[in-house]
Amino acid sequence: MKSTRATQEPAWVRIVLLTVGLGFLFFFLGLPLVAVFVEALAQGWGLYAAALREPETLSAIWLTVLIALIVLPFNVAFGVAAAWAIAKFEFRGKSLLITLIDLPFAVSPVVAGLVFILLFGAQGAFGPWLSAHEIKIIFAVPGMILATLFITFPFIARELIPLMQAQGKDEEEAAVSLGASGWQMFWRVTLPNIKWGLLYGVILANARAMGEFGAVSVVSGHIRGETNTLPLHVEILYNEYNAVGAFAAASVLALLALVTLVAKTIVEWRMKKETDMLNAVLAPEKT
Amino acid sequence: MNAVRKTLSTLLFGLVASAALADATLLNVSYDVARDVYRDFNPLFQKHWQAKTGETLELRQSHAGSSKQARAVADGLEADVVTMNQGNDIEFLADKGLVAKDWARKFPNNASPYTSAMVFVVRKGNPKNLKDWADLAGPGVQIIMPNPKSSGNGRNAYLSAWAWALRQPGGDDKTAQEFLGKLLKNAPLLAAGGRDATTTFMQRRIGDVLITFESEAEMIAKEFGKGEFTVVYPSLTMQTEFPVAIVDKVVDKKGTRQQATAYLEYLWSKDGQENAARNYLRPRDPELLKKYAVSFPAVKTFTVDEVFGSAKQAFATHFKDGGTFDRVYVAK
Fold it and tell me: What does DSSP assign to residue B202?
């Protein structure tokens, strides 16, 4: 119904809306992206490549990837478990759990970082104990992983909860009644049903993990070649009047974002195809 | 192909290898534009130390805003040494018990191995003919400087103008305050920090003059080209210090006091001083200052201690809530 009405709008309305939409996208998304690459290459490919081969930049890239690689499996495990519990079961405190999952979205990343300092910093609650046992969390990689984990953990759960709720628990009940064990049911029924949604969540969480600045900046300590991630490195290079270095590092981040975007589009397309197929199968029953 | 392989191997093994080979590791926590200075200084010291003791040292650097760095050290960032751009930040660590109370006397020259001066950066050829502080308060001039409330750079600019006004015939605190009021009327905005002010002036091309460090003017030249602006030395300006200190709590725990002390002392060696000069910071060594006279024209300077007692006192009088800055500056 909606689609027929939209096409009945006069042509000029459509053209104006399209121009406004595309113009906005061009100025706020397209131009900055182009600017990053133009600035990075402003002094030629040679300097660009040299900027990327700086050991400090390489270690920033590596650390960014490493943090994402560690954070994502945790997020997958947590996200699936939380979404499973929320979508398939009724229990007391469920709405509290949902609120807690959303907490990282509501809290400013800088505040999140400060919370870790308050907990694990030298003057924090666990600080003296940690330093007595030679355990470094803040201003070291573990702290940065914790901060990133905190910031990104709602993404997968948030993606899966509506999906799993929509799917209901009929299929799982059928599997159990046919004699499947818990794990069999999970691997053969639940996981195949949510795999595209899960992947979508992973991609979003990954994009955020690699791009996170605020929380990580607070707990990083900015040690060159050791606790600098790409976003932090970009800022510091820029502040040092090293524009080529800063934009070269930024271009790597932008490339990662573009790859993420393509992956996201593919996953979205697959998800839509599957739901369409599902609807086609279910349609006769519903009428 | 070779480049790719090299890149990958650096990625994977670079960190591990360098950390494993060293006998001891020092972390130098520093302000944000000091990277080049210490990147060039560290290999000099590593060589010196190896020749002297046979020990291989690994030197790490951390750079961000000076006050943010001091905060991080207080919160547990394990710096063996701190090299800052304001005494206040080390004072803060001394108050927290991480640095000796008499840190400024542990090394020569108020524990500041090199200095810089506050200068005017004006548009190419100085079209508005800005020569001294008085010109900056004149009609139709726009000045760009960082906010003194949040930036050391901005505080230095403010105090330089204040000290100049004090030294004028008949100058006292009252006339100085009036002058600052006039000067700040010419500031269309106050930038968040030094880098922000530079971007405003150079890239957005707002304002006729940028007040900044002499050393920073050289970094601006690196990015925007030397011909893009002219540096003007006012008749009196602040000699800014870059104090260094050992973080006692950390070196005692790690057992690196000897290395950390030698590291900082080496900043005053011929090599250390020449390295500072090459990075546009005024060396303390008078001979080197002469040798690099082209980069460092003679300029009449004052230190904060001379005019304001101490950095702490200057801060309390001028920049605390309700200080002179709050009284003279009317936000636009």
Answer: I
DSSP state of A9: S
**Residue B273: CB partners within 8 Å, gap ≥ 6?**
B113, B114, B267, B283, B284, B285, B288
Chain B contact for A122 (CB, 8 A cutoff): yes
pLDDT score recorded for residue A286: 46
Q: Which residues pair with B2 in a beta bridge?
A: none
Under 8 Å between Cβ of A203 and A81: no
Round to whole Å and give the CA distance between B122 and B143. Answer: 10
User: What whole-number distance in Å separates Cα of residue B181 and Cα of residue A25?
Assistant: 44
Closest CA to A113 of A125, A122, A101, A121: A121
Is B274's Cβ below 8 Å from some Cβ in A? no
The two structure tokens encoding residue B253 = 């725990």
Helix ranges, chain A (H) = 2-7, 11-25, 31-40, 44-53, 55-88, 94-106, 109-120, 127-132, 141-152, 154-167, 170-177, 182-185, 191-211, 214-220, 230-239, 243-286
For chain B, say whether A50 makes contact (Cβ under 8 Å). no
Question: Of the candidates B233, B237, B213, which has an alpha carbon nearest to the alpha carbon of residue B162?
Answer: B237
C-alpha span between B23 and B58 (Å, rounded): 8
Could you say which residues of chain A have pLDDT below 50?
1-3, 286-287
Q: What is the arithmetic mean of pLDDT over B284-291? A: 94
**A-chain residue closest to B98, CA distance:** A122
Chain B residues touching A136 at Cβ < 8 A: 78
Give the single-character DSSP code of B211: E
Structure tokens at B212: 């900044």
Cα end-to-end span (Å), chain B: 57
Torsions phi, psi for A136 (to 5 deg): -105, 120
DSSP A88-148: H---TTHHHHHHHHHHHHHS-HHHHHHHHHHHHSTTSSSHHHHHHTT---TTSHHHHHHHH
Q: Are B165 and B180 in contact (CB under 8 A)?
A: yes
Residue B74: both structure tokens together: 């207080």
B293 touches chain A (CB under 8 A): no
Please give the Cα distance from B82 to B90 (Å, whole number): 8
Are the beta carbons of A172 and A180 closer than 8 angstroms? no
Alpha-carbon span B153 to A35, nearest angstrom: 29
Percent of chain A having pLDDT more than 70? 95
ipTM for the assembly: 0.76
When scoring A69, A139, A220, A228 by the number of chain B Cβ atoms within 10 A, the one with the most, hence best to mutate, is A139
Q: Is the whole model's pTM more than 0.80, yes or no?
A: yes
Residue entry with tokens 């478990």: A81
Q: Alpha-carbon distance B116 to B113, whole Å?
A: 11
Q: Which of B69, B76, B222 sits opposite A121 (nearest CB)?
A: B76
- A-to-B residue pairs, Cβ atoms closer than 8 angstroms: 88
Q: What are the angstrom distances between the C-alpha of B67 and each of A160, A215, B246, B268?
A: 43, 18, 17, 24
